[in-house]
Specification:
Layout lengths: L12 H9 L1 H6 L3 E2 L8 H16 L6 H12 L8 H17 L6 E5 L10 E4 L5 E9 L4 H12 L2 H14 L5 E8 L5 E8 L2 H22 L13 E2 L2 E2 L3 H5 L13 E2 L7
Parallel strand pairs: 4-5
Antiparallel strand pairs: 1-9, 2-3, 3-4, 5-6, 7-8
Bound molecules: iron/sulfur cluster (SF4).
């Protein structure tokens, strides 16, 4: 593996996740959306809790629970899978639990600051002076029997390695660990800090692969390459891919997509 990596364009981790699952999905998802009978509120709950923790960590004047509740009321979707009352209660529980976590850090360097196209929740010097990153992960429900699998996902997460790489670049020293700050609302409410140890060699190994994918993503966006199907991504742990009919009924012919999908504009912008 080359010692020096010519990185080129950089994309946010969620886009890299989509691209690595299936380049065609990453491309189609920018233009097409399958209408869902319900809008999931798990993401809204996670963002609201993270905003409250951000306010608390930066000494904001407003009560953290008020920050979170205001955000929920402003962004509560029509056809939500939970009532507004239920979402507000889950957010309140998440904020209370999250605020009780002892991070043990020596110094906060950045809270919700953008580093290029990624935005880690918290960056600072850990209890032992190591540069570290914390990312809040709210789980409305996580049974103990799935906990180990959940933690293992963070150990190879594009998001965590991208944080380590880009934050290390910014501060001129390696990030030594990235923490998942898990806020579990049920069935056993608790929080935990799961540490993923980083080393410059490990981050470079990840960057070697990620940077090649980023170049290919840019080439597809510029029309120099064509997106292509990867059938190993067609079935996900949550069911069939959202573009399943697009590929396996319409064989990728986007002129037929409006029969099932809505055209969307401006996704993945920036
Ligand atoms: S259905 Fe399969 S091939 Fe089509 S976009 Fe999804 S993962 Fe890719």
């Amino acid at each position: 593996m080359a010692q020096t990596i010519n990185v080129g364009p950089v994309y946010p981790p969620y886009q890299l996740d989509n691209f690595q699952r299936c380049p065609l999905f990453w491309d189609l998802d920018k233009r097409w959306k399958k209408p869902l009978p319900k809008e999931w509120t798990a993401g809204l709950i996670g963002v609201a809790v993270a905003m409250a923790l951000q306010s608390a960590l930066t000494g904001g004047q407003a009560m953290p629970t008020d920050v979170a509740s205001d955000y929920v009321r402003e962004n509560y979707p029509a056809r939500a899978d939970r009532s507004l009352k239920g979402v507000l209660e889950l957010v309140r529980q998440g904020v209370e639990l999250g605020m009780a976590t002892r991070f043990g850090l020596k110094e906060i360097l950045a809270v919700e600051k953008s580093f290029g196209r990624t935005r880690p929740d918290l960056v600072g010097y850990d209890y032992d002076g190591a540069l570290a990153v914390w990312d809040h992960k709210v789980k409305v429900s996580l049974d103990d029997k799935f906990l180990e699998k959940e933690l293992a996902r963070y150990d190879t997460s594009n998001q965590f390695y991208e944080y380590a790489w880009i934050v290390g670049q910014e501060y001129g020293e390696p990030v030594e660990r990235v923490y998942a700050h898990l806020i579990i609302l049920g069935p056993s409410p608790r929080t935990m800090l799961h540490s993923v140890q980083m080393s410059p060699e490990h981050v470079r190994h990840w960057l070697h692969g990620a940077s090649r994918d980023w170049k290919l993503m840019r080439a597809i966006e510029q029309g120099d390459e064509e997106a292509y199907a990867r059938y190993t991504g067609c079935q996900t742990p949550y069911g069939p891919c959202a573009m399943y009919e697009g590929c396996h009924t319409f064989y990728g012919d986007e002129s037929a997509f409006p029969a099932i999908y809505e055209h969307v504009k401006g996704r993945y912008a920036g």
